[in-house]
Amino acid sequence: MNLTKHWAAQLDDYAIDVGWSPGGELLAAASAAGTLRVYSASDGALRHELPGHAAGANCLAFAPTPPLLASGGQDGTVKLWDAGSGQHLKTSELGRGWVEHLAWRPAAENRPTPLLAAACGRRLTLLDLEGSVRHAFSEAAKTISALAWDPKGGAIAEAHFGGIRIWDADDFLLQKSLPYANGIHALAWSPDGRWLVSGNQDPSVHLWIPAEDIELHMSGYEGKVRHLSFDPTSRWLATSGGARRVRVGLRRCGPRGPGAGDAAARRPGVRRLVPGLPRAARHRLLRRDRHALEPGEGAAAAGHGAHAQRRGAPVLVSGRPVPGDRLRERCCVCPQVRGLSPP
C-alpha cells in the first residue's frame, strides 16, 4: 500500500495536537506557540487562524455537534470556538495548572446534551456547551494523565500515577477506583464498553473488566505505552510501545482476555504470551470460543506494577528490528496489513 501526500501546511511552531471535525470537513491543529489553525480537509486551505492560548496550547477537541471546537492551554483555561466562523465564544478558567486533556462525551440518544471533560492538573471538570462548569470532581492523588469516556457516555475514567477513577457523568458519584502502582500514559474503552485498558510507564498494558472485577496484564514492551486503539468490533486492540523494535501489538480480546492463539502469535520468530499464574487460575481465563487454547497458552490475570513482574506477567510478542533511521516509537500494527507491516 502506497500513501500519497494530499496537502501539507506549515505551523508557527511544533504541532501539539490535531483533530478532525465530526463530519471530516475540517482539520484543526494546535501549535506549541499557542495558536490554533483550522484547515479545509479537502484542499488544505486555511479557514481560520485563532489566537488560542498565549502561554501555549496543549490540546484541542471538536464537539460531536459541529462546528464547536474546544482548546486547552498552559494558562489553565478552556476556550470554545466556532470553527465555522472563527469566532471565540467562551473562556472557562479552571485553575493554575495546565489543561492537558479534553474529551467530549460521545453522542447518545439518551444523553443528547454534549459534555466536555477537561483535566487541569489534578482536577477533572465537566463543562457544558456554553462553557459553564457542570461539576468539578475531587482532586486526584497526582496530576491527571489520561481521560476516556465510556462509549455510552454514562461514565468518565481519569488516570493518574497510582490508578484510575471512574466517575458517573450523571450523578457525579465515584463508580469504581482501580489501583495501579505505576504511571499511566493512555486510556481506552472498548467500543462495547466491556474493557478498560491502560498504557503504562513501567512499560506494560493493563486490562480491566470493571463490571466483573477482572484484570489482566501484558508486559515486555521496550518503551512506554502511549497509544491504544480498539477496532470497532472490540475484538482487536492495537498498542504502541517499541523504541528499537516494532511491536506486533494487535491482540484479540476474547471473552476472558487477550488471546495468544491468533495468527500474529503463530508467525515465525514471534513469542507467545508467557503466563504467570498457577494452572488452575489459567484454566479460568482460557478463551471459551472455538479458538480456545490449551492451558498455559492464554493471557494470565495479574496484579500490577512491580508485583505483576514478580509473578511472571505475560510478555507481549515482538517483531523484527527496524533500520536505525526509524528507531522511534511506532504504533503497533497487524502483520496482515501489508502496507503497514514490519520491514
Question: Strands, helices and their partners?
Answer:
Elements: E1 15-20, E2 26-31, E3 36-40, E4 46-50, E5 57-62, E6 68-73, E7 77-82, E8 87-93, E9 99-104, E10 116-120, E11 123-127, E12 133-136, E13 144-149, E14 155-160, E15 162-168, E16 174-180, E17 184-189, E18 196-200, E19 204-209, E20 214-219, E21 228-230, E22 236-242, E23 251-253, E24 258-259, H1 279-284, H2 305-310, E25 330-331
Antiparallel strand pairs: 1-2, 2-3, 3-4, 5-6, 6-7, 7-8, 9-10, 10-11, 11-12, 13-14, 14-15, 15-16, 17-18, 18-19, 19-20, 21-22, 22-23, 22-25, 23-24
Q: How much strand content do the residues show?
A: 35-45%
Count of alpha and pi helical runs? 2
Write down the Rg: 21 Å
Q: What is the typical, i.e. mean, pLDDT?
A: 78
Q: Could you give a short account of the major beta sheet?
A: 5 strands, antiparallel
**Could you list the spans in which at least 5 consecutive residues all have pLDDT below 50?**
260-343
* SSE series: EEEEEEEEEEEEEEEEEEEEEEEEHHE
Distance between the termini: 13 Å
How many E-type strands?
25
- C-alpha geometry: globular
Content-based structural category: mainly beta
Helix content: under 10%
